[in-house]
Amino acid sequence: MNTLRTAAAGALIGVLVALFAPAVPASAHGTLTSPISRTAACGTEGGQAARSAACRAAVAASRPGAAEAWDNLRVAGVNGRDRSVIPDGKLCSGGLTEYAGLDLPRTDWPSTTVTPGAKFTFRYATTIPHEGTFRFYVTKSGYRPGTALRWADVTSTPFLTSTDPRIVDGAYTMPGTLPSGLTGHHVIYTIWQNSSTADTYYSCSDVVFTAKKAKKAKKAATNPSPVSARGGSGAELPAAAGGSQTPPDAPTTHPGHHDAAPSTAPDEIQPSAAAVQEPAGMMNGSRWPLIAGIGLMLAILGTIGALALHYRPKPRHRRS
Description:
By secondary structure, this protein is of the alpha+beta class. Helix content is about 20%, strand content about 20%. Strands 2, 3, 5, 6, 9, 10 and 11 form a seven-stranded mixed beta sheet that branches.
């Protein structure tokens, strides 16, 4: 009887685990938040920026769930072959159809106002830290906003490189100097090549270079408050993206900078054969479905065991 009760209790516990295990998505990995990237601005924690026309169009042109996975734009197995793996016109999405909307040729992406040649602290929010090297590129002089980004638009040499930078308040913190000699709307293209995994992460940050008065230009440009990492890992939403004001000498993040009438024609996005990664459901999935499956299996086995013990023939005793 005690054995039967134990088996029944195990079966009940297994059923409860299977039924009530929550499907909580796991945290992913990170993206550039200062200057704010399209991925961060248009994600679920992008605040005011996420409600901009450009971000709404980007979400509509991407696969469902891309906004929730704002920190998971990664491609496996690139190994430094970025220019041969990531197709022209699809640099901001990493060639992934899940994030195709980030490549839309628009001029009204949320942007950050910066000073050419000024000191700047780049912040890359992390929800799962990895070892690796960050490389920062910028579009060349003469870049035309409102066109899908191509490799020919981007400098061949990074203006800043940082390997395994320290994490401060939930974000990799990388002091550097902004490129000089640029004016107007440009894109800072960030590549984070992991050394602890096979993944490489990509992001596009729209910036507006504006010259300040000589006296103010000597001051170091300070960055807006960084974006908060999902799961409470420490970084906070960009102040401008959330609608708050930034200090007078701080770079200003605009929910939608307008240099010209926005183009809403979507780019033709096709899957890249070389840019392959795990299905989003596996990358962002929780361990709970696996636990629930194990619980259900235990429940079934426990029930079978309980029934077998209950109905097994009782041994007959021979009379001496």
